[in-house]
Structure formats: structure tokens, C-alpha cells
Please model this.
Amino acid sequence: MTKEIASKENKNESIEVFFPHNPDTSRLLVGSSIDSFMASRIARAVEDADACLLNLNVTSLSSEQAQLVVALRVDHRNPERVARSLERYGYTVLDTDANILDDDTARRRYDELMKYLSL
Model:
């Protein structure tokens, strides 16, 4: 199960167990050594990017390696600021899953808003 979290093919299927879908959040997978892992430091890095840490789950890839995979959920749709902040704190961002609107959805919502305002 833990190897599936880091796998690109099964990422969406296995990570859904930890993070139920919420359109106003984004998810990040962060790599860390056991020696440098501190949940409070990760939370501080997320807060430095003006985001709230909603979930933090820690797993290891294998018992032989001293590497951890930390799955995060933050309250921003775009995780780029959080990813940059985590990298400044010395963590490796393995993957991000953003809930960014595509152009068609954004255009449709804009048109609906304009229609509502013109009433």
C-alpha cells in the first residue's frame, strides 16, 4: 500500500483513502529522511505560504531505507506556493495534485456570474 502512494499510476486511487475529495484543497507528497522529519516544521512551512495544513499522513517506502513519504492536504487550490516553501525548509516535493479549474469551467462560471449580475 505505501509503495502505491508514491507510484504515479496508482496515485489517485490510493491517495483517495487518506484524502476525501474536496475542491478547495490540494495535495502534496513530500519526501524526507527520518532524521530531518518534524511535523511542526512542515506545518510551519505550510503556514509560511499562507495556507492551513488540513491533513498530514506519514508512511515509509520500506523498512530498509531511512526515507519517509509525507502526504499533505492544504486549503489552497494551487499548491505551488506551499511546494516552494517546503523546498526552502529542505524537504523534497515528490508530487502535487492541484484542484485548479480548467479554462472551460472558469469561463462557464464567469458567464453564469455575469448573467446573474445583469438580472
Observations:
- The two ends are 53 Å apart (CA to CA).
- Helices lie at 2-6, 11-15, 39-48, 80-88, 103-117.
- Residues 1-8 have pLDDT under 50 and may be disordered.
